[in-house]
C-alpha cells in the first residue's frame, strides 16, 4: 500500500512541477475530484498575456465582441470549437446565451454594421485551439480543463479555476461523457496490492472501447446539388426593402454545416452583398434536409448553398 501511495504522490508532484501556476492548481483539483475538472471548461490565453482573472461579465463582453483589446493594447482574437462540439455548445449556452442560429445572425449583423471587428475563428480540435492561442498573442479560447497543457495560460473566472467551487463555465450532463481521460484517471493504471505482480502492480488496463457515439461525429463533404436533393423544408428569403429600393441584385454563397438530423447548424458567408447576405442567412438557417447516411448511419455534412436574388423587371 505504501508503494502505491508513493507512486501516486510522485505523479502528483510531477504534474505540479511540470505545469506553470494555474495548471498545478488544475492538477491538484483533478487528483481530488477528477469529475469536476472533466466537466470544467478552461479559459485559455497566450502565456504573454498579463491578465490573470476576469469577471464573468468581462468574459461575456470579450466573447460578444464588445471589448476588442487587452490592457496591453493587443487586439483580442476569439477562437471556438466547430459547431456540434460540446465545448462550443457550453460556450454558446453559458457565455453567449444564444442558439447556433442566433449566434450566426448576431455576428453577421455585428460585422456588417461595424459593431465588432470580426467573428470568432473556428477550429476542429482542442489541440488546434491550443496551438492558435500559443501562436497569437491576443487570442482567447476555451478547452476542457483536462486538455490544458503548458503552452497556454489558464485565467481565473471571478477568482476561480475549473474544478473549484462555484466555477461557472462547465459542460452539462452527457456533454462531458466523451472527453479524454482526466489527470485523475492515471490511478486506473495501478492495481490493488496483492495482485499477481510481486511489486503490487498489474499490467495497464486494456483501452476502453470507443463509444458508439464517436463514429457519428464523422463529417462528410457533399456537393451542393446532391445536398439540395435532400432538402425537405425550404424558406425563401425575404427580399430586403432597401435592396428593392436601390435595385440590388446578386448571388449569396454560403458554407453550411448540416447536423445529423438535417438541421442547419452553421453558416459562413463566402461571398455576396451584405444586405442580401443577412436575408439569405435568416432563411437558410431554417432549412431542413433529410439526413445523409454513411454505412447506414446519419453523419454531419459540410456543403455549399447558393441563394440568388433577382428583381422582377
What do these coordinates show?
With 313 residues, this protein is an alpha/beta fold. The protein folds into two domains: 2-187, Periplasmic binding protein-like II (D-Maltodextrin-Binding Protein, domain 2, 3-Layer(aba) Sandwich); 219-309, TonB (TolA/TonB C-terminal domain). The chain has helices at residues 2-18, 23-32, 34-39, 56-63, 86-96, 100-113, 126-135, 212-215, 224-228, 241-245, 274-284, and strands at 41-45, 53-54, 77-81, 121-123, 139-144, 153-157, 219-221, 231-233, 250-258, 264-271, 288-289, 292-294, 297-309. Strand 9 and strand 10 form a beta hairpin. Helix 1 (2-18) runs antiparallel to helix 2 (23-32) and helix 6 (100-113) runs antiparallel to helix 11 (274-284). The longest helix is centred in the first third of the chain and has 17 residues, at 2-18. It is globular and about 60 Å long. The protein starts with a helix and ends with a strand.
Layout of SSEs?
Elements: H1 2-18, H2 23-32, H3 34-39, E1 41-45, E2 53-54, H4 56-63, E3 77-81, H5 86-96, H6 100-113, E4 121-123, H7 126-135, E5 139-144, E6 153-157, H8 212-215, E7 219-221, H9 224-228, E8 231-233, H10 241-245, E9 250-258, E10 264-271, H11 274-284, E11 288-289, E12 292-294, E13 297-309
Which residue ranges are poorly predicted, with pLDDT under 50 across at least 5 consecutive positions?
7-22, 27-32, 174-216
User: What is the assigned CATH homologous superfamily of the largest domain?
Assistant: Periplasmic binding protein-like II
The helix fraction, in percent, is 25-40%
Q: Remind me, CATH topology of the largest domain?
A: D-Maltodextrin-Binding Protein, domain 2
Amino acid at each position: 500500500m505504501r508503494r502505491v501511495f508513493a507512486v501516486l504522490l510522485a505523479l502528483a508532484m510531477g504534474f505540479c512541477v511540470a505545469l506553470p501556476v494555474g495548471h498545478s492548481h488544475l492538477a491538484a483539483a483533478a487528483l481530488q475530484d477528477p469529475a469536476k475538472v472533466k466537466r470544467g471548461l478552461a479559459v485559455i490565453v497566450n502565456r504573454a498575456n498579463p491578465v490573470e482573472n476576469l469577471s464573468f461579465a468581462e468574459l461575456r463582453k470579450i466573447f460578444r465582441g464588445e471589448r476588442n483589446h487587452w490592457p496591453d493594447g493587443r487586439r483580442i482574437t476569439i477562437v471556438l470549437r466547430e459547431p456540434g462540439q460540446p465545448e462550443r455548445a457550453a460556450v454558446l449556452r453559458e457565455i453567449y446565451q444564444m442558439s447556433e442560429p442566433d449566434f450566426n445572425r448576431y455576428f453577421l449583423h455585428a460585422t456588417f454594421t461595424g459593431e465588432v471587428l470580426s467573428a470568432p475563428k473556428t477550429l476542429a480540435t482542442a489541440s488546434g485551439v491550443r496551438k492558435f492561442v500559443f501562436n497569437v498573442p491576443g487570442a482567447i479560447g476555451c478547452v476542457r480543463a483536462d486538455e490544458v497543457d503548458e503552452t497556454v495560460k489558464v485565467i481565473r473566472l471571478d477568482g476561480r479555476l475549473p474544478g473549484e467551487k462555484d466555477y461557472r463555465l462547465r459542460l452539462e450532463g452527457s456533454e462531458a461523457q466523451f472527453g479524454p481521460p482526466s489527470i485523475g484517471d492515471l490511478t486506473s493504471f495501478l492495481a490493488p496490492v496483492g495482485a499477481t505482480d510481486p511489486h503490487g502492480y498489474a499490467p495497464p488496463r486494456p483501452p476502453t472501447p470507443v463509444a458508439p457515439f464517436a463514429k457519428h461525429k464523422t463529417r462528410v463533404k457533399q456537393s451542393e446539388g446532391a445536398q439540395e436533393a435532400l432538402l425537405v423544408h425550404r424558406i425563401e428569403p425575404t427580399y430586403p426593402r432597401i435592396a428593392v429600393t436601390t435595385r440590388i441584385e446578386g448571388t449569396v454563397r454560403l458554407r453550411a454545416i448540416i447536423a445529423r438530423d438535417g438541421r442547419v447548424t452553421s453558416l459562413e458567408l463566402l461571398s455576396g452583398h451584405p444586405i442580401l447576405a443577412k436575408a439569405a442567412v435568416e432563411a437558410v438557417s431554417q432549412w431542413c434536409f433529410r439526413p445523409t447516411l454513411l454505412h447506414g448511419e446519419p453523419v454531419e455534412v459540410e456543403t455549399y448553398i447558393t441563394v440568388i436574388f433577382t428583381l422582377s423587371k
